[in-house]
Amino acid sequence: MFSEFKDFIAKGNVMDMAVGIIIGAAFTAIVSSLVADLINPIIGLFTGGLDFTNNYVVLAGTVPEGASLEAAREAGASVFAWGSFVMAVINFLIIAFVVFMLVRYVNKVKAAAEKPEEVAPEVESGPSELDVLLEIRDSLKKA
User: Fold this and answer.
1) Hey, what's the torsion of the CAs at 76, 72, 86, 88, to 10 degrees?
2) 143: number of CA atoms within 13 Å, CB side?
3) I want to staple 63 with a disulfide (CB 3.0 to 4.6 A). Which of 22, 72, 92, 111 is the partner?
4) pLDDT means over runs of 10, the chain (143 residues)
5) CATH T-level fold of 2-120
6) Apex CA 54: angle with CA 49 and CA 59, to 5°?
7) CA 107 to chain centre
8) Residue 52 CA from chain centroid, whole number
9) Which residue from 11, 35, 26, 134 is spatially nearest to 93, judged by alpha carbons?
10) What is the distance between the alpha carbons of residues 22 and 106, in angstroms, rounded to a whole number?
11) What sign does the CA torsion over 60, 64, 65, 66 have?
12) Residues contacting residue 84 through CB under 8 Å, at least 6 positions apart
């Protein structure tokens, strides 16, 4: 059983998958930073700082008026944090769009690299040397 597992791990596909997961985790950090630090502030400029994160409904317990979501949770109240979910969906859509644009660009570059070089059209250059010699021979035979 151990040898089968060792053979499974030694296969290239598993190693490729492991490298992909590691790179994917690092790429996720980069894209998340891109969205949180660069794109969301720009969107905030156009939407007037729209942020639903602290919007919630208290289901049970008491919370001081105007308290943040974190303060409501620390007070032990049961809250329905719909704002956090809305912001998570918005962030997901932004991240998905950024990843789509990156993959689209990579696919264009890959397609351009795989595109075969254009072959020049064949130009007719007339009869070959052999054709001319055969024609001369035939004309001498007739004479």
Assistant:
1) -70
2) 6
3) 72
4) 74 73 82 77 75 76 77 80 81 80 86 74 77 88 80
5) 1.10.1200
6) 150
7) 9
8) 27
9) 35
10) 19
11) negative
12) 52, 53, 56, 69
**What pTM does this model have?**
0.51
* pLDDT cut 90: percent of the chain above it: 0
Alpha helices by DSSP H, listed for the chain, are 2-10, 12-33, 40-47, 69-74, 82-114, 129-142
Provide the b/e sequence for 7-39 (b: ≥16 CB within 10 Å). Answer: eeeeeeeeeeeeeeeeeeeeeeeebeeebeeeb
Task: Judge whether 75 and 62 are in contact, CB under 8 Å.
Answer: yes
Structure tokens at 101: 């644009």
Tell me the residue length of the chain: 143
Residues 6+ apart with CB under 8 A from 67: 75
Contact of 119 with 113, CB cutoff 8 Å: no
